[in-house]
Write a structure and sequence with these properties.
The protein is α/β, with parallel strands linked by helices. The chain has two domains: about 120 residues, Rossmann fold (3-Layer(aba) Sandwich); about 240 residues, Methylesterase CheB, C-terminal domain (Rossmann fold). Helix content is about 45%, strand content about 20%. The strands form four sheets. A seven-stranded parallel β-sheet has the order 7-9-6-5-12-13-14, sandwiched between helices. It has a three-stranded parallel β-sheet with strand order 1-2-3, with helices on both faces. Strands 8-11-10 form a three-stranded antiparallel β-sheet. Helix 3 runs parallel beside helix 4 and helix 9 crosses helix 14. Its EC number is 3.1.1.61, 3.5.1.44. One of its GO terms (biological process) is phosphorelay signal transduction system. Keywords: Chemotaxis, Cytoplasm, Hydrolase, Phosphoprotein.
């Protein structure tokens, strides 16, 4: 596998300065050769990929692309590696290694090149938040919303009794839909944003993260555990209402097929990739613009390529509020940049302000 990957990268114009047969050698090689990027396997002797990523990010921060087998167990481990600071992952094919890898040559070279451009010397909240911290944040959000709801109820009672309510007390627009699109560097970013969204906003959320089948289900479970929303991987014909979210299934486009009485329905298709990806952000956003007549907010997060730009344009023309992640906090400022270049993005925000920015778009003063 190391020889095949090295051949593919060098054929694609990427210089391979070192190889390592386990995580311990990888840590030593990074320190010795100071590479621009590391491709890291998950399961290795001596030291596994997670431990190696953690060591590298601590001692010699370097962009890491994980190479993961297409299994549930490896999906879990890969997400752990992303938590430790890896930028993205590439799914190793099954079957005859050399034949299958050669079919993915262009994709691997593009991903390695893209990941190499990421500045990991300055950490973001998304890469330093542990699972326990994320869960604590979600619990804190729910508790705050419970308190806020009690305060709103008290304010209503005071108003009926002739007492003026606090003018700063806010309520949310009804039947709002949030659409999120992301790619490289996106999983931990999406986790952070969802963990900070208030349950009382009662959003219907659609998430399109460029990710293969076998990983999107695990991703949905992680979001469900880390947020106040009920998050599942999308299945054909699924319907969701307030407080629920769907993650687009890997390998299939998620199309909004119906919207009525505050509930939306999706269908999954295996039509041709759009922007060379499936699921594509544009497919979901454009179908939402055509189908949903309620309030909508769309967010484009870190990722390479231009997927989401046409979707943002369609949603803005349909009256949606639009946001994009800024360059400084994006692992790869490709998708957000293309969205901003359409002239249809209302606000560009750093990661730590995106959740509040979303809430601002759906908040109305009493």
């Amino acid at each position: 596998m190391r020889s095949v990957i090295s051949d593919i990268l060098e054929t694609g114009g990427v210089e391979v300065v070192a190889q390592a047969k386990n995580g311990l050698e990888a840590v030593e090689a990074v320190d010795e050769h100071d590479p621009d990027v590391v491709t890291m396997d998950v399961e290795m002797p001596e030291m596994n990929g997670i431990e190696a990523v953690e060591q590298i990010m601590s001692a010699h921060p370097t962009p890491v692309l994980m190479l993961s087998a297409h299994t549930d167990e490896n999906a879990d481990v890969t997400f752990q590696a992303l938590e430790k600071g890896a930028v993205d992952f590439f799914t190793k094919p099954g079957g005859e290694v050399s034949m299958e890898m050669s079919r993915l040559e262009d994709q691997l070279v593009d991903m390695v090149t893209s990941v190499a451009s990421v500045d990991v010397s300055v950490g973001t909240k998304s890469s330093t938040t542990t699972p326990d911290e994320a869960y604590a944040q979600a619990v804190e959000t729910v508790e705050k919303e419970s308190t806020a709801q009690s305060q709103r109820s008290s304010a209503t009672a005071d108003a009926s009794a002739g007492t003026t309510a606090d003018p700063t007390d806010a309520t949310y627009v009804e039947n709002a839909t949030l659409l999120i699109g992301s790619s490289t560097g996106g999983p931990t970013v999406v986790e952070q944003i969802l963990s900070e969204l208030p349950a009382a906003a009662n959003l219907r959320i659609l998430i399109v993260q460029h990710m293969p089948d076998g990983f999107t289900g695990r991703f949905a479970q992680r979001l469900d555990n880390r947020s106040a929303y009920d998050v599942t991987e999308a299945a054909d014909g699924d319907r969701i209402g307030g407080g629920e979210a769907l993650v687009a299934c890997g390998g299939k486009h998620m199309v909004v097929s119906n919207y009525a009485s505050g509930r939306l329905r999706v269908k999954l298709t295996e039509t041709e990739p759009v922007n060379s990806v499936r699921p594509a952000v544009d497919v979901t956003m454009e179908s939402a613009a055509e189908t949903i007549d309620g309030p909508m907010t769309a967010v484009i997060l870190t990722g390479m390529g231009n997927d989401g730009a046409d979707g943002i344009r369609a949603l803005k023309q349909a009256g949606a509020k639009t946001l994009a992640q800024d360059e400084a906090t994006s692992a790869v400022y490709g998708m957000p940049k293309r969205a901003v270049e359409t002239g249809m993005v209302d606000t560009v925000l750093p990661l730590d302000e995106i959740a509040d920015g979303i809430v601002d778009t759906i908040t109305k003063e009493n």
